[in-house]
Amino acid sequence: MSFSFNFDVPKQIVNPDFTREKEGHNEKKDNAATSVSNKQVNTTPSEPVKEAKEYLPVPDLQFLLLDAVTETVTIGTLPPLQFLNETVFEKTSSEREDDEKILSRTAEQRSDLISGVYEGGLKVWECTYDLLELIDRDGETFEGKTVLDLGCGSGLLGILALKRRASNVHFQDYNSTVIEELTVPNVILNLQDDDDEESEVERKKGTGKGKKQEEDGTTKTSTDKCEEKSESPPPKKRANDLSQNPLLTKCRFFSGDWSTFLPLVLSSDPPIRYDIILTSETIYNTAYYPALHETLHKLLAPEGLVYLATKSHYFGVGGGLHLFETYVEQRGIFSVQHVWDGDEGLQRHVVILRFLKPKDT
To answer: 200 burial class (0-12, 13-18, 19+ CB within 10 angstroms)?
Structure first.
């Protein structure tokens, strides 16, 4: 899978053909760009905020996976994670529901980010894989925990938490189109995959290898492909049945700006606090730091952890880890711990934020 970094950000000069090759060319500038400790953080959003809303999956889910082309990522001991193929998704954008018109605009402008309009949720960005690898290495199970996938995009991080027995998983992305057309279908896709695996296990129980148990107690070997096919429900029926899947009841889906998402979640009775917040490539724009910091501050449980995967610097946008660390340090709410630092290509990192203890302040 290829990764491009094309940004359309108002009031900034941006090369629309910015790619990883260009990033490699600028790699030597990275340290200098991120070491400017006194750089002023721009905290003025360029567009009006997008009102947050909760998306409720419709009872009939079968159409979400109609003619879907998928791919699978497998990392270490993590369960396989399926998601809609990006290239096919983009090529079929004209056939999809899109009240925000982001699919057509990103195609026309060949841009991976249009500030205040589309915030990159249709791509699976590199740092998502970094965070998945860290979770595999550290053995986090998420069991019994309430998890938020913030800026979820494809939802792979939240889906992993769901597969690893989290008690609740909430997904948030800036764009409602991303939630409806990508995040929810990906969740359904992985629930369907789990159902298929469980069905296969149940089918083999007590039958012996390659054999089918008959009502009269006899067995017969199934070699006819048509007969084997008839034993499994068709894909459309499986997808429809997933509306009753107990794992789906653990999920909630939100779209909108963080500044409006926060009060929406806090309006729950009782207010929600997350044991773990997973977020990847969400600090590229310094204008969003106040809303992001406030969201983390108000929604993280007292002993909770924020896993943040990011690049050192985002050329053409201005954000990056150093500026965010400075912003966090100045507010004195969180500590920042580096748990993984990559040196290859454009430098990438995974850090953990946790609340400062009185003795730390």
So the answer is: exposed
Strand-pair partners of 83: 71
Between helix 258-266 and helix 289-299 the angle, nearest 10°, is 20
Distance of CA 310 to the CA centre of its chain: 13
**Is there a contact between 151 and 157 (Cβ–Cβ < 8 Å)?**
no
Q: Tokens 């500030």 identify what position?
A: 115
Q: How far apart are CA 342 and CA 219, in angstroms?
A: 56
**Own/partner long-range contacts of 110-114 (Cβ < 8 Å, ≥24 apart):** 110/6, 110/16, 110/17, 111/6, 111/7, 111/8, 111/16, 112/4, 112/5, 112/6, 112/7, 113/6, 113/7, 113/8, 113/9, 113/284, 113/317, 114/8
35 contacts 347 by C-beta, under 8 angstroms: no
| pLDDT tens column, 245-260 | 788 899 999 999 999 9
What does the alpha-carbon distance between residue 199 and residue 214 come to, in Å, rounded to a whole number?
A: 18
Q: How many CB atoms lie within 10 A of CB 83?
A: 24
Q: Which residue in this structure is represented by tokens 């926060």?
A: 262
pLDDT in tens, 105-139: 887 777 788 888 888 888 899 999 999 999 999 99
Sign of the CA dihedral with 8 first, then 36, 324, and 311 last: positive
> Before 270, cis peptide (omega within 30)?
yes
Element (H, E) at 349: strand 348-355
Which string of b and e fits 215-230 if b means at least 16 CB within 10 Å?
eeeeeeeeeeeeeeee
pTM reported for the whole predicted model = 0.76
Which residue shows structure tokens 């711990």? 337
Query: In whole angstroms, what is the distance from residue 126 CA to residue 130 CA?
Result: 7
